[in-house]
Design goal:
CATH topology of one domain: Rossmann fold
Helix content: 40-55%
Strand order of the largest sheet: 2-6-1-7-8
CATH superfamily of one domain: P-loop containing nucleotide triphosphate hydrolases
Largest sheet: 5 strands, parallel
Low-confidence stretches: none
Mean pLDDT: 92
Order of helices and strands: EHEHHEEEHHEHEHHEH
Radius of gyration: 17 Å
Number of helices: 9
Shape: globular
Bound molecules: 2'-deoxycytidine-5'-monophosphate
CATH architecture of one domain: 3-Layer(aba) Sandwich
Strand content: 15-25%
């Protein structure tokens, strides 16, 4: 635990994809000795499981029989029937299905409940689309990270490349703007700037610079 911060805070980081949330949330949680909860990975886990389901089923029934587990000791790892699927959930197909399944109320209820249970005692950094608006509207500190869409697409493209996923920049851009629309225009838990959130535009700012700004806010609260 960071000596400067005495309280076990609940910190949320929301924003669109490619704004740098995951890297920053991971680094911030490390700096504070907090647990990092990547809620996007949880939505991706459900999407992966649904994509590979053995029987046709409505989403409610599917969730009832779903054997999925999350481990937060070193980032967010996802296990389906005890198999670690944390790497397999990063493909473009899972990305796209996660975006559409995350519009379904039973899926949101299922994951929001787990996220609240893990985070309620504090000492957590939650990262996603609705962590400061729906999951923990009373969080101690809320951040909203944003960046120029061109830069976000470039970052996502580089990330895919580093994982050997061969998707062109134009396609990444197209998928991203579709996903931005899905995430922001859906009727339940849309991506919004949560009330009271600190808004940070990360365009052209290096990661250390962003972490510095976040830590300053955290120290003021902790
Ligand atoms: O952050 P990500 O790209 O891994 O998230 C995958 C999808 O999950 C994204 O399209 C939207 C959805 N999601 C969500 O609806 N709510 C969250 N708190 C986190 C992610």
């Amino acid at each position: 635990m960071n000596k400067d911060i005495e309280k076990k805070l609940i910190i949320t980081i929301d924003g669109p994809s490619g704004a740098g949330k995951s890297t920053i949330a991971r680094m911030l949680s490390k700096a504070l000795g907090y647990v990092y909860i990547d809620t996007g990975a949880m939505y991706r886990g459900i999407a992966y499981a649904f994509m590979n389901r053995r029987q046709e089923a409505e989403i409610d029934e599917f969730l009832e029989h779903l054997s999925i587990r999350f481990n937060f000791t070193d980032g967010t790892r996802v296990f389906l029937e005890d198999r670690d699927i944390s790497d397999e959930i990063r493909t473009p197909e899972v990305t796209s299905l996660a975006s559409s399944l995350s519009q379904k109320s039973p899926v949101r209820q299922y994951l929001t409940k787990i996220q609240r249970e893990i985070g309620r005692d504090g000492g957590v950094v939650l990262e996603g689309r609705d962590t400061g608006s729906i999951v923990f509207p009373d969080a101690d500190i809320k951040f909203y990270l944003d960046a120029d869409p061109e830069e976000r697409a470039r970052r996502r493209h580089l990330e895919f490349k580093s994982k050997g996923i061969d998707t062109g920049l134009t396609e990444v851009k197209k998928d991203m703007s579709q996903r931005d629309r899905n995430d922001s225009e859906r009727s339940i838990a849309p991506l919004i700037i949560p009330e009271g959130a600190v808004y940070i535009d990360t365009t052209g700012i290096d990661i250390q610079g962003v972490i510095g700004v976040l830590l300053k806010h955290v120290r003021e609260k902790g």
